[in-house]
Amino acid sequence: MKLQPKSIESFLRRPDPGVRAVLLYGPDAGLVRDRAMALGRTVVEDPSDPFRVTELYGRALVDDPARLADEAAAIALTGGRRLVRIREADDATTGAFAGLLTAPPPGDTLVVVEAGDLSNRSKLRLLFEEADAGAAIPCYVDDEASLGQVIADLLRGHGLTADADALSFLSGNLVGDRLVARGEVEKLALYMGRETRVRLEDAQACVGDSAALEMDEPVWAAGDGDFAALDKSLGRLFAEGTSPVAILRAAQRHFQRLHQVSAAGRSPEQAIAALRPPVFFKMRGRFTNQARRWSPAAVRNALERLVEAEAECKRTHMPDETICARALFQVASLARR
Predict the structure, then answer these.
(1) Which fold has domain 144-206?
(2) Which of 69, 186, 299, 316 is packed most tightly, with the most Cβ within 10 A?
(3) What is the average pLDDT across 315-320?
């Protein structure tokens, strides 16, 4: 079953009882994990319950494909539905899922599968899209508008509302990883204490110097032409499992803002002051320096390379990390010129 975007949220709240396995895939690893946890909560309240929850990695199914069917057919000793979570699945695990989806075992165990960014030719993805007992849910990086609504809903769950400029700042600086955004909103809720209205200065004080800047470290380094900082920050983010596509999109947003400044026809300081969401105050000086360094033509060149790199991630078999790193080092070379 291939779910349409408008059906995803309702399915996550109330999965089709005829679906025995759900595949979550896409470039936003945080959104994959977030939706996997949401599905898991429809089955069991405590995700660490050893009697009702089993977690496996995809490589275990490659070595022992029959184990998946055994886990899906098992009965919880304490009663209740069981949840089987599979992490890091890829096309090599397709054989293990083929039997499960073709002839599901008795019972009502739900299998939730987490994968990376699968192409439309992926055997695993096609298997889940075509199976009546399976469902495939894409998890693409939120744009600022959709993430803004998600953040507003999360804040509302904590009894908070946000001023428009605060919400704009949060959505603009947390794009890239849904799970990071959720964690930062929870941290913001603790920071607010008894206050119920989030102002821009609250958002900047709590969020601006952590998750957003962590994702943007290689982007700032590329804009500065700092090869050493770029290499170090990319290595750390890749080791943490950050999506290369998310980093490329963060870079595109950064250079789009530089383009706005360079095309504004006024001083960099005046143009930067008019940007929305506003530049985080601790980074304003650095952004001003980059606005002076980059010509409009060079900014357009950088944007073209970044957009092309994202397209390559989706249409070639080259590792996404390699494509991302190559593009950012090319951008850093432009900065040095």
Answers:
(1) Helicase, Ruva Protein; domain 3 (1.10.8)
(2) 299
(3) 80
